[in-house]
Amino acid sequence: MNMRRHLLLSLLSAVMLALPWYTPFSGMLLWVAFVPLLALEHDFALRKARGCWKYYALTFIVWNAITTYWLSHATLAGAVGAIIGNALQMFLLFALFRWVKRKTNNATGYTFLVALWLAWEYFYFDAEISWPWLVLGNGFAKDIHLIQWYEYTGVLGGSLWVWLVNLVLFHIITARRTIYKKQRAITLTIAGLLIMAPITLSLIRFHTYRETINPCRVAILQPNIDPYHEKFNGLSGAEQLAILLSLAETATDSLTDYVIAPETAIDRVQENAIEQSEAVRAIRGFVARRPQVNFITGVTSLYFYSPDEKRSVTAREIENGAYDVFNASMQINRTDSIPVYHKSKLVLLVEKMPYPRFFSFLKSLSLDLGGYVGSYGTQEEREAFPSADGRFRIGTAICYESVYGRYYTEYIRKGANLMSIITNDGWWDDTPGYRQHLTYASLRAIETRRSIARSANTGISAIINQRGEASATTGWWERTSLSGTLNANEHITFYVRYGDYTGRAACLTLFLIGGYALVRGLLKKRG
Q1: Is the pTM of this model over 0.85?
Q2: Both 370 and 464 in a single domain?
Q3: Which residues contact 337 (CB under 8 A, 6 or more apart)?
Q4: In sequence order, what DSSP letters do the residues of 11-58 get, joined into one string?
Q5: Domain of 439, in residue numbers
Q6: Which of 127, 364, 417, 441 gives 20 to 30 Å between its CA and that of 316?
Q7: Residue 241 within any structural domain of the chain
């Protein structure tokens, strides 16, 4: 009976942790999602029984599998690696928590668990091997009315919210027979405040927030070119460019400030001779007829090193030198300048091998999803493209970069008063993956208070305002365009200014409690 009960508790937590990433469900489920798992661990602790690890391992594997199984549509090996790798890290966090709790006491153990989880999420955003898709605060991405305060805390504030509510509710359940009515009332009041205070503040902020009127007209292109059968081996570059420019012709008018095209919409542009590219010349011709337009597009670019030039660790050797490949964006307008930005948060095993200085011999294991195989180049800093008239400065987050909140703020600190996200979500087919990716754009809009023009090759493209609302969207798998207005914003939010201070505080707490637990453990061992 205990085994069946423990299995049920384990799977119940897994399902409740996964459901908020699905469209019909709210992130509010996360407030109770860990309670069954904590109850399971509490039962094992009371009985001083062994074998708890099997159940929380199951919880984390099932949660990851339900939520991100769609990765298998692009690569089965990559999906298995992401699911098992992410679940393993969560498993280790919970195992460390159990060890500290045994060596100290319940209060210290649970505090350690919260600090450890937040510190892990904090470092995970910058790790060489990084897959922060399931950071707990991301689970509220569809509940934008509830999390307007992310402009102060970022998603780590949401993760802290999840853990605090779970622990208070768990305490109410486990201590219901051992605490007095007055204590129970106090605990219930704390739980109510933990839930209602952030929601109330968020609703007030949502309904009172007003965008400064600084309009920018955008035309967003969705060429809907199948990445498996057309992008790299079905349609020629000229045919794809013709589709793009045809959409741009119908989507723009005399008031259009920006045309935004998706990730890798154009292939094989040599940065050393960028003006000689046929695609660049064609877009130049389009802009010449519409001199007010700034044309931003995703591009696969090449940079060839001169013989005496220092090469990056991702440079590819050829007979007469070396070159780098970039997943990039570029802007073309009536000025002579063509700024190019290189995507720098790359998809593991697709766009990069981890630790290239040490594991360059593993390049052959990179997955071939079309285009170029092997590690792509990056750049040190973010940048914002200035419009031809100087009114706007737009950042271009490329695909996976929009998952990283702290990283995304670097565009704003570089002066971006508008944002674009260019992506190609067609690798995952019609699964929850591209919908989840879309909702993360709302998180970035709230954190930075920057409107977003989102151009997705295969959908969903969207216009997202500074409150995180998608005011207009396209459908999935349709060739179309979207026109609308964004308001530029110069204000710097608290989160943009100070970053993930929640994570830094968690690291300090973790250090203090970890040291205390270690000393206690050593003293008990000697005694």
Answers
A1: yes
A2: yes
A3: none
A4: HHHHHHHHGGGSTT--GGGHHHHTHHHHHHHHHHHHHT-S-HHHHHHH
A5: 215-490
A6: 127
A7: yes
